[in-house]
Structures are given as structure tokens and as C-alpha cells.
Amino acid sequence: MTYVSLDAWWWPFVFILFAGWLATDIWRFAGVLLGRKLSDTSDAFILVRSVATALVAAVIARLILFPSGALGETTLLLRVGAAAIGFLAFMAGGQRIGVGVGVSLVVLLGGMAAGY
């Protein structure tokens, strides 16, 4: 079965959903099975956690420094400011991710509405 095998409006969405699920869930299940007996303080776990954190930081840096779409129409100062204020809110709010993301979003949307 291929991407163009059916001529239905919904088929591309089902194909992409299935392909995305297949590509990611295999690795999730493998991680659960292989990491079940892994200690939180082991070198392997620390390495995996460090790489995952670095990847998230790299994606955030790319979104701030080289944005696309509507985010690319904002100023660098607004994007950096929203990230910094969101981080401060994250720290002041008891290190809750929702607080940091929410405050950053409000600052970013407010700055976009003001034309920055």
C-alpha cells in the first residue's frame, strides 16, 4: 500500500498518522523495555538525559534565532525577551513547565499584538 493507493480525501491524513506512529512508537517501546532496569544514577541514564536536554535546548535556540512563519516576523528582542521572562516565571513559579511556557506565550502574543 502506498501514499497514493487510495483516492479518498482522508487517506493522506491516515497514512501520515500511521507512518508517524510507526516511526516513533517503536523507539518508545524499545526505550521502555531496555531502560526498565536502568538506575537513575547510572552513566547511561545520565548520558541519555543529557542528550535529550541538549536536543530540546537546540530546538528552542533554533526557534529563537532562526524562526519561520509568523514567529519570523517578530523581532529578535521580543523572542529573547519572551524566553527570558518565561524562564524567570518558571523559576519563580516553583519550576512548573506550564507556568514558564504560559508566561512566554503571553509575552510573545502581547508583543506580536503590539507590533514588535
Automatic annotation (TrEMBL):
Keywords, comma-separated and alphabetical: Membrane, Transmembrane, Transmembrane helix
Top-level taxon: Bacteria
Pfam families for the chain: AzlD
RNA-binding recorded as keyword: no
Record carries keyword tRNA processing: no
Transmembrane segments: 12-34, 46-65, 71-90, 97-115
Protein name: AzlD domain-containing protein
Organism this protein belongs to: Oricola cellulosilytica
Organism classification: Bacteria, Pseudomonadati, Pseudomonadota, Alphaproteobacteria, Hyphomicrobiales
